[in-house]
Design the sequence.
């Protein structure tokens, strides 16, 4: 119990620490990967709280997501290496306000919600997975199916929207492979 | 004790793989060569590029090695020979393998060089291609076992190995595993002929030794994963379970090497195209078929 | 003859100890060589590195030995110094068939250019490494070529590059220092920017916090494509309206006044701003405002005039038209026409899309940092001596340029005829027999000799044998480029056998060659890799050799040759004109050449026949493995006085720029490789 609390605390502090690093650094990739490790620390917190499936899932998803965020940051931002020394924080008052409000909300939710009766011992990981499965395909099926279809639609729409519109009749003299490839791939 | 045994297995496997790889490339069988190569790397100068991102540059090889070892930690070599038989073992393997991407992004960004950077980001494109093809076949095997426990997945193959039960899944997983280990024909991040070594380019000395070791251990881990998920793990007549595991793992690893030896590098656009237009529909089909088989066949 | 140094010039610093001796011995038994100019040159000279227990390294970082084959040109000499510096110590230099380059320390081992000498040299090198890998105080290697030059670039306009610090002519921003390396380390993120503006930022933050609030809200969120811009803009709008509602009581005058000046509802307060005249704002740091023009203290950019009344009219239009046209953002004719004068819209928010609208865009419409990356001169997969400079955006090539560092200098100095022939053959290591033949024919023609069929047969056979070897060498290079290890091994082995084979042995190689070709035609991913890649734009002039025949041009200098007609030569051509067609064309030519050798007889190296009239002007044409080459020379009394050489690769190297434009990097490199350029045959 004490050991568990200790680890939860350690990972929690790590998550906060990495989160702070996200904004302290001027390098885009460092920022993105700091966020990645912050989220991975949250995943480790889940593991320490014996929610094994959630923890592993969190760790897995964050790796891919944050890396993709990293490449987009590198593509679109000036000075992705951060050696130019630009100040990375913006809207200071707004963000401080928003942060304070969010923290207050989270803490009040944590303190004042009715979490139900405290279980003597958490079910083992295999049982948790089973019950998660039943939950997802039972009571929460509608929620997840809707979310999945929405995400899929968003993916397809974003891809379709990102394809440059080919001007009809313009012969760029370029080959089919290469720059035209992306259009071909996505339009098939 | 199990930890030591598993680590030893990984090292021996990596060594064997290095010997076989050298034999394929040069035609000479020199068992002592990888050890000499490792020793010579340890003695060479460690060069740091100009203005590197030091944190990433140093962390990347270590992270890759850690990923490979953690992946092996959840794979059972024998019913009692597994470091941590997690209840969500199959998912954990996936989670850990996702950090190969993080490691390569660090290795690409760290040295502050164009070749490494292009190599690192290319791997992200490669991940978009293979990532689903790793997860979905594992899902199908977990469906058959009705559990995410790796040992349960092995035991569910007692009557019929998954390679026969779901051959489509095996083929897709095998291909995706080679892509994950970024070996030929999917060696886009390191591309010796196009990027002068890509992410490997700027590493020398100790870091290069760790990187090379990590890559070999990664192949062993992925081969062990293929064995556990599709080849019935430790099951087999006559020989003790761990021997079967080792034989199968080595067989898969050597076949991965052979595939690389006899094929040229794939185009990135083709890889993405084939994986998304052919691979993922097939993986979904595989899940459908397995689901039907489980429900219909007693 | 061959000598060896007694100590290693590239030893690593360290007192020799037992562990270090073992490391040295491990290094010695695990020799990895970086071949300069390239492994294909070593193969062309008949060197089998694997037999000498040496492994070919792809990069200098991976190499222990710098293996120099033949004499190097001046430019390649300098490049070699850079390569040597990139190798980690302990490192050694092995020179075959020439003297050590002037920019490097003395060669550790040097030998003549032959396989036996190589084996001997390798043993000596091993001994040297085993004993002297570590030295207590080795000399450091430095060279003037390695000094990094500093250049100054504008962070927002990467095409602006100056040698002195100053301001960008386009936007006025301070230029930041960057190291301009000649090798691969020129990354885009090596700004050596002095953080002298940091202090300023902190001060300004304090004062202008409230203003930053509105400006940076959108500024921060809108670093992206314009459809993201749209979403956040809406956000911005909603937020502002809500905010105004709350703040309407004026508890924070600063923000209040500020918000109002940008509202498009025609608030009363806005007129106050109008009357105060134009303000000057920094596009990147909207909190910097002044009443007179100048430069921003944070970044040095020119301040832009900000006219509230103009912007207000515009603002109504902005969210709607972004909404409608956000998927058009790839076009240069961005619909931000309305505020095209300003890089930011009325709220002071700086849209990255607006700011970057003048930046060059690649074909997919994204404005990314363009990076100039050198590929060469000793790049694995490309012909050695070829320097390819590609401008990359991400992994696509926007423009490219190829130059040869080993081009032959056909300067006029009088040389004896025999010397001339030797020099020409030595200057073209990838096709020595062809150029020897070319020189002999030209000289004999100048001397007025008629071709002798008996001699011509042997010469034709030698030329065809070289063609086979050259195409096999190209296949090995293709294997290196595509990391197709089996192909490299097989083609290299066959090339070595072909080069020293007589007619019998060549005929005996037929099944092996046929099976190689058949296997390549059916290799699973090869066709997908090569098909459609490297197609030249229509109307490319002056293609020669296999490249021309693969595009359907029926041109082959051998058709005009009487001897070849006698041997039954028939020209074949493919039609597709892409890399796959060139591969098939070279396959076909290998088999054709084999047939010709079989008919012609034993190959004989071209030797100059006896000349009795050593004066005159002659011209000869030979179909070298890469295309038609023509030599025109004038000789007087046994001395060659003027030379004019026209070779295929001089024309082909100019095609590279068109070939790589707009391609993905891998495709671009494969396309360049498919041309089979020999940088030596480029005449400067």
Sequence:
């Amino acid at each position: 119990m004490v050991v568990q609390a200790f680890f939860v605390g350690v990972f929690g502090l790590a998550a906060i620490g990495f989160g702070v690093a996200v904004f302290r650094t001027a390098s885009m990739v460092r920022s993105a990967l700091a966020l990645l490790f912050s989220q991975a620390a949250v995943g480790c917190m889940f593991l320490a709280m014996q929610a094994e499936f959630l923890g592993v899932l969190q760790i897995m998803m964050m790796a891919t997501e944050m890396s993709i965020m990293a490449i987009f940051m590198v593509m679109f931002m000036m000075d992705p290496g951060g050696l130019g020394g630009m100040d990375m924080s913006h809207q200071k008052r707004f963000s401080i306000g928003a942060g304070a409000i969010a923290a207050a909300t989270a803490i009040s939710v944590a303190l004042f919600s009715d979490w139900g009766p405290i279980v003597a011992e958490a079910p083992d990981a295999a049982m948790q997975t089973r019950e998660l499965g039943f939950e997802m395909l039972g009571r929460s099926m509608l929620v997840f199916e809707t979310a999945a279809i929405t995400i899929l639609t968003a993916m397809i729409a974003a891809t379709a929207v990102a394809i440059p519109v080919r001007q009809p009749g313009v012969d760029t003299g370029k080959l089919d492979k290469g720059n035209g490839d992306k259009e071909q791939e996505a339009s098939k | 004790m199990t930890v030591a045994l598993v680590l030893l297995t990984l090292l021996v496997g990596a060594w064997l793989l290095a010997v076989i790889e050298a034999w394929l490339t040069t035609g000479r069988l020199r068992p002592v060569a990888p050890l000499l190569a490792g020793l010579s790397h340890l003695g060479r100068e460690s060069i740091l590029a100009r203005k590197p991102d030091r944190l990433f540059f140093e962390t990347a090889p270590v992270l890759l090695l850690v990923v490979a070892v953690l992946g092996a930690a959840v794979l059972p070599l024998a019913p009692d020979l597994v470091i941590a038989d997690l209840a969500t073992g199959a998912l954990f393997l996936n989670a850990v393998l996702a950090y190969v991407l993080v490691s390569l992004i660090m290795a690409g960004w760290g040295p502050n060089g164009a070749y490494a950077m292009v190599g690192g980001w290319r791997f992200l494109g490669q991940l978009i291609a293979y990532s689903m093809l790793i997860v979905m076949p594992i899902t199908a095997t977990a469906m058959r076992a009705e559990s995410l426990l790796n040992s349960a997945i092995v035991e569910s193959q007692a009557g019929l190995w998954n390679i026969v039960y779901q051959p489509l899944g095996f083929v897709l997983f095998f291909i995706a595993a080679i892509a994950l280990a970024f070996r030929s024909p999917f060696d886009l991040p390191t591309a010796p002929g196009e990027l002068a070594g890509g992410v490997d380019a700027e590493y020398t000395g100790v870091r290069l030794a760790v990187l090379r070791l990590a890559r070999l251990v990664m192949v062993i881990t992925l081969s062990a994963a293929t064995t556990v998920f599709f080849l019935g793990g430790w099951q087999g007549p006559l020989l003790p379970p761990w021997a079967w595991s080792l034989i199968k793992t080595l067989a898969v690893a050597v076949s991965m090497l052979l595939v690389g030896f006899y094929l040229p590098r794939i185009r990135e656009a083709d890889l993405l195209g084939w994986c998304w237009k052919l691979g993922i529909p097939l993986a979904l089909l595989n899940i459908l078929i397995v689901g039907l088989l489980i429900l219909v066949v007693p | 003859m061959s000598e060896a140094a007694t100590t290693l010039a590239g030893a690593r610093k360290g007192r020799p100890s037992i562990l270090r001796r073992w490391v040295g011995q491990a290094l010695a038994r695990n020799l990895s060589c970086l071949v300069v100019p390239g492994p294909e040159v070593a193969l062309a000279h008949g060197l089998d590195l694997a037999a000498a227990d040496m492994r070919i390294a792809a990069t200098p970082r991976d190499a222990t030995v710098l293996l120099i084959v033949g004499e190097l040109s001046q430019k390649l000499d300098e490049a070699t110094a850079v390569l040597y510096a990139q190798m980690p110590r302990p490192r050694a230099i092995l020179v075959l068939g020439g003297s050590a380059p002037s920019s490097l320390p003395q060669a550790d081992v040097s030998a003549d250019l032959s396989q036996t000498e190589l084996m001997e040299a390798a043993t000596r090198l091993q001994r040297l490494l085993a004993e002297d890998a570590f030295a207590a105080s080795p000399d450091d290697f430095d060279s003037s070529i390695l000094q990094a030059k500093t250049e100054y670039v504008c962070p927002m306009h990467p095409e602006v590059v100056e040698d002195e610090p100053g301001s960008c002519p386009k936007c006025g921003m301070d230029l930041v220092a960057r190291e301009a390396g000649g090798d691969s380390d020129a990354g885009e993120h090596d700004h050596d920017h002095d953080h002298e503006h940091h202090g300023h930022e902190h001060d300004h933050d304090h004062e202008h916090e409230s203003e930053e609030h509105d400006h940076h809200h959108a500024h921060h969120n809108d670093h992206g494509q314009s459809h993201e811009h749209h979403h956040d803009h809406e956000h911005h709008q909603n937020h502002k309206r809500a905010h105004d509602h709350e703040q309407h009581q004026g508890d924070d005058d600063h923000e209040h006044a500020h918000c109002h000046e940008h509202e498009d509802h025609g608030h009363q307060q806005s007129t106050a701003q109008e009357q105060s005249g134009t303000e000057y704002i920094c596009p990147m740091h909207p909190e910097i405002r002044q009443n007179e023009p100048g430069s921003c203290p944070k970044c040095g950019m020119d301040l832009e005039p900000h006219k509230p009344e103009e912007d207000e009219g515009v603002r109504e239009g902005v969210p709607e038209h972004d909404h409608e046209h956000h998927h058009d953002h790839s076009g240069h004719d961005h619909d931000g026409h309305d505020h095209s004068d300003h890089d930011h819209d009325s709220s002071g928010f700086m849209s990255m899309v607006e700011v970057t609208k003048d930046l060059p865009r690649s074909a997919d419409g994204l404005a990314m940092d363009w990076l100039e990356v050198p590929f060469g001169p000793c790049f694995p997969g490309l012909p050695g001596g070829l320097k390819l400079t590609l401008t990359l955006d991400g992994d696509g090539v926007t423009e490219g340029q190829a130059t040869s560092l080993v081009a032959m200098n056909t300067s006029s100095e009088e040389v004896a005829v025999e010397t001339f022939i030797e020099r020409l053959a030595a200057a073209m290591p990838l096709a020595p027999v062809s150029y020897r033949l070319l020189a002999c024919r030209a000289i004999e023609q100048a001397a007025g000799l008629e071709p002798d069929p008996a001699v011509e047969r042997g010469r034709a056979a030698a030329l065809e044998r070289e063609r086979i070897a050259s195409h096999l060498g190209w296949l090995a290079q293709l294997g290196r480029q595509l990391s197709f290890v089996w192909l490299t091994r097989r083609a290299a082995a066959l090339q070595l056998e072909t080069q020293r084979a007589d007619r019998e042995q060549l005929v005996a190689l037929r099944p092996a060659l046929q099976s190689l070709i058949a296997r390549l035609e059916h290799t699973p991913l090869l066709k997908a890799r090569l098909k459609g890649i490297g197609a030249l734009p229509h109307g490319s002039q002056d293609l020669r050799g296999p490249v021309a025949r693969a595009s359907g041009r029926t041109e082959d200098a051998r058709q005009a040759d009487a001897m070849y007609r006698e041997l039954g030569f028939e020209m074949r051509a493919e039609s597709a004109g892409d890399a796959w067609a060139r591969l098939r064309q070279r396959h076909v030519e290998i088999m054709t050449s084999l047939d010709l050798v079989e008919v012609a007889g034993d190959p004989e190296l071209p030797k100059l026949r006896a000349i009795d009239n050593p004066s005159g002007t002659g011209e000869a044409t030979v179909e070298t493995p890469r295309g038609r080459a023509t030599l025109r020379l004038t000789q007087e009394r046994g001395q060659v006085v003027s030379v004019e050489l026209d070779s295929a690769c001089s024309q082909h190297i100019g095609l590279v720029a068109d070939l790589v434009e707009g391609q993905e990097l891998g495709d671009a490199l494969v396309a360049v490789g498919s041309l089979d350029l020999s940088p030596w045959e480029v005449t400067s």
Q: What stands out?
A: The radius of gyration of chain B is 19 Å. Residues 2-296 of chain B form one domain.
